[in-house]
Amino acid sequence: YAKLKDFEDFMVSKGVDINLISSELSKIVKKDNALLFGDEIVQNFKYLAISHNIDLMYKLSSDESLSILLEAARSENNWKNIRSYLNVFKEYTTYLTPKQKLLTLNFMYDLLMHREGDIRRQASEILGTTIAEFDDEYRKEIPADKQIEQPEMDSIRLWDKYLNMILNPDHKVIDQHKIWLGYSLKTVLGSLINKSNKKYYNNYIDIFLKHLSLEETNRDKIFIILDALWRLPYPDMSQNQIEKIVDYISDFFDTDLETTVIALDTIDRITFLLGSDSTYFNKIIDFISDLKNNEDLAVYYLKYKISQYLKLDPAITGFYKNKLHDYSNDLSEIFLMNLKSAVPWIIKSTNVKYVEEFIHYISPISRLHTATHLCNLVKVSAVEYVRNQAGRALLSLAPLLSIDQRNDVAIELLRGLDIEGYEFSKYIPRYLGELMLYLHPKELDESIDDYENYAKDRSSRTIPLILNTVAFIIEHYNKYPQIFPESKQVYDARLEKMIGILMAGLSNYDESIRQEAFYFVGKNIFNSQILSLEQKHYIFKKINKKLLTLLSEKDLTDVFFLSNSASLNHIYRFISDYTFFIGEMKYVDKTKAAFFPGT
Known about the structure:
This protein is an all-alpha fold. 66% of the residues lie in helices and 0% in strands. The chain is globular.
C-alpha cells in the first residue's frame, strides 16, 4: 500500500488530478535537484525510480519492443553493457508474458556460450529462474462447469527442452562452447530448484534422472552430469531417486582421475546434505574403507571428508587425516600442479579446499608462500570456480598472516588489477576489498589515499576495478572495528572518504566509468545482504543529494538508462524497506546561510 501511495504522489508531482475532476494537467514548478532538502530528496528518488520503471516496462510491453531490445543486446560487444541488459531481465522477467519469456530464454541460452564467465553465470541463473516462474498460477476459484485451458508450453516441458539442449547441443556448436554450456548446467539447475514450487520437484528431478545412463561413453557429458547432481534437493527426494543417483555415481569411482574426483566431490556434497543416518551409502562405505597408499591428494581429501560425514570407523578417518598431514609438510608440489593448465579444474579446486581446511597445520614460514600462490590463482586461473575457491581460501588465511605479510599480499593483488586480460582482473576486487580490512589502520589509510589517486589518473579500464574494490571495502567495513578497535570518529571519517571515492567515479567524464560507479553503489551498498538497513541509511544520508544531482537525465536509447533502472530499483527497495521496518527517514534541515560573492 505504501508503494501505491508513492505512485499516487508521483502522479500528483506530474500535475495529474487524481480525483478525476479535470483532465487538464496542473502546472507544477519543478525545483532543481541542487535546491532539494531532507524529505524532498527521498521523494525525488522514489519518483525517479518509478519513472525509470514506467519507461522500462514500456520498452518491455510488447513482443516487438522486447525483440528490438534483445537484438540490441545480441549486437552488443561490450560485456559490461550486456551485464546491464542482464540486470534488467533479472529484475523484470516476472512481468513478461509467456511468449516474451520464451524469447528471453532463447537469448539466455545463447549467452551460456559467451566468453565471459560471469555473463554465463548470470545468464544461467536467469534461465533457471525464468523456467521456474514460467507458469502463471490461477489463484481465483474456478466454476464447477469450467476448466482452465492448458497452455501450449509449461515449465516442465521447458526444463526438458533446455536440459536436452545443454547436454546434447547442436552439432554446429564448437567444442569450447559445449564445455561452457555444460559447466552452466549446475547453475541453471540450482536456480530452477531454488525458485520453483516444491510440488514440481519430482517432475524436474525425474526429467534430469532420465539422462543418467551407464551406457553413455562421452566423458565430457558424464562429467557435466556428475558436476550438476549435487544441486538437486536431496532432503525432499524419494528413496528411489537417491538410490538411483548413488548407484550411478558409484560406477565412476575407479575410472580416470578427473572422473573419480568429480564423482567423489558429488558424493561429498550429498553425504553432507543427508548425514550419516542414510541407508543409501553401502557401496560408498566399501569404497572408502578400502585403504590405499598410492592415491592422489584430491582423492585422499575427498575420502577423508566423506568418512567424516558418514561417521565411519575412526581408524579409517585417521588413516586419511595422517596422509593429508604428510602433504601439508611440503606444499610446493601442490602449488606447481595448480598452476599447470593441463591439470583439470576439479583437481585444482579440491587442492585449494584442502589448503583451506588444513591451513592451521601449515607452518608459519610457509603461510606467505601459500598466500602468494592463492593470489596467483585468483589472478590467472582459467576457471571462475577455481578463482573464487582460491579467493575464499585466501580470506581464511589472512587472519593467520602477520601485519606486514597481509600488506604484501594486498599489494600483490592490487598489481593484478593492471593485468591485461580483463576476464581475469575483474574477479580481484571482491577479494582485495575484503583483504584490505585485515590491514593495520595506518596501512589501510595509506592504501585508501592511493586508491583515491588511482581513481583519478588510471586508465578507464582500471578505474572501475578500483571503484569496485572500494565498494567491497565499504560493504564489509562494519567488521573492521572487531579486528582493529578505533574511535567512532576515525571509523566514520574513513568511511566518508571511501564513499567520496565512489562519488568521484559518478562525476567522471567517461560515461562507462559513471555507469560502473552507479552500478556498484546500487549493488554493493543498497542491494547488499551484509549491510543492515541502519548502515545503508547512514550512507544514504551522506550521498543522497549528491547522488541525485549527479545522475544524468534519462536517455531511453542509452544502455546507461538500463543500468540506472536496476540501481534505482535497489535504492527504492531500500527506502521502502527502511520505511516499513524502521520508520520514516527523518532529517534535520541545516540552517540556511547567504553567501555574497566579493565581500
